[in-house]
């Protein structure tokens, strides 16, 4: 009996680790499963799934096994994000980047990682402007399990539902901070809009953080 597209997607998604790391080149595990079902992506794109995951995907699709593409990442031990509280400036960029809402905190307040929810995807590290987030090995070392994947999928879906309820304008305002302005505004000039004020606030926080790090 042939499967419908939806059934193929569901089976493929069930095999994926749900870390939502985007190393496959898609915006999460479900979009990758959809691409696999549509035949527009190979089964070798998921480093967290390792060769075993690539084999499972190939079996589902009836395709020859291909080892996962090592250029996309390593099949490494589990890691968890850690935030250096002393240097966190509360910019919330890591919170916006986390695909499973594993980081909590308020604007201009110290953030913290919910280690039980963190998938180790590392997406919070690049946007941190003060480099206060590191990925550290999970101790004691263990493997990612099907239960971990189920919880990660639930957290990701809950985040997606939450974001869908947020007005488009608010989501745009909460997006990545624009590039710094090339020319400084006059000292007596007020910020032109909310985005300017946001940039100025982050720039000031960065300056304070750098000052604290000076010996």
Please tell me about this protein's structure.
This protein is mostly helical and 215 residues long. The chain folds into two domains: 68 residues, Electron transport complex subunit B, putative Fe-S cluster (3-methyladenine DNA Glycosylase II, Chain A, domain 3); 139 residues, Alpha-Beta Plaits, CATH 3.30.70.20. The strands form two sheets. A two-stranded antiparallel sheet has the order 1-4. Strands 2-3 form a two-stranded antiparallel ribbon. Helix 1 crosses helix 2 and helix 1 runs antiparallel to helix 3. The protein starts with a helix and ends with a helix.
Quick summary:
By secondary structure, the protein is mainly alpha-helical. The chain folds into 2 domains: 5-72, Orthogonal Bundle (3-methyladenine DNA Glycosylase II, Chain A, domain 3), CATH 1.10.15.40; 77-215, Alpha-Beta Plaits (2-Layer Sandwich), CATH 3.30.70. It has helices spanning 5-15, 29-37, 50-61, 93-97, 146-165, 168-173, 194-213; strands at 79-83, 103-104, 112-113, 133-137.
């Amino acid at each position: 009996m042939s499967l419908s597209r939806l059934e193929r997607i569901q089976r493929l998604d069930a095999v994926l680790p749900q870390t939502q790391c985007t190393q496959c080149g898609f915006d999460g595990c479900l979009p990758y499963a959809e691409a696999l079902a549509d035949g527009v992506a190979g089964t070798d794109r998921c480093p967290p799934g390792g060769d075993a995951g690539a084999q499972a995907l190939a079996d589902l699709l009836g395709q020859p096994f291909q080892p996962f593409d090592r250029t996309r990442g390593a099949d490494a031990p589990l890691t968890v994000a850690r935030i250096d509280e002393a240097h966190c400036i509360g910019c919330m960029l890591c919170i916006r980047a986390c695909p499973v809402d594993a980081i909590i905190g308020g604007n201009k307040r110290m953030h913290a990682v919910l280690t039980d929810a963190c998938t180790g995807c590392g997406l919070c590290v690049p946007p941190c402007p003060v480099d206060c987030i590191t990925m550290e090995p999970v101790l004691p070392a263990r493997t990612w399990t099907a239960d971990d994947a189920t919880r990660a999928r639930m957290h990701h879906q809950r985040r997606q539902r939450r974001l869908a309820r947020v007005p488009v304008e608010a989501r745009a305002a909460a997006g990545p901070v624009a590039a710094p302005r090339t020319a400084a505004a006059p000292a007596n000039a007020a910020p032109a809009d909310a985005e300017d004020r946001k940039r100025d606030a982050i720039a000031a926080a960065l300056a304070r953080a750098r000052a604290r790090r000076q010996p």
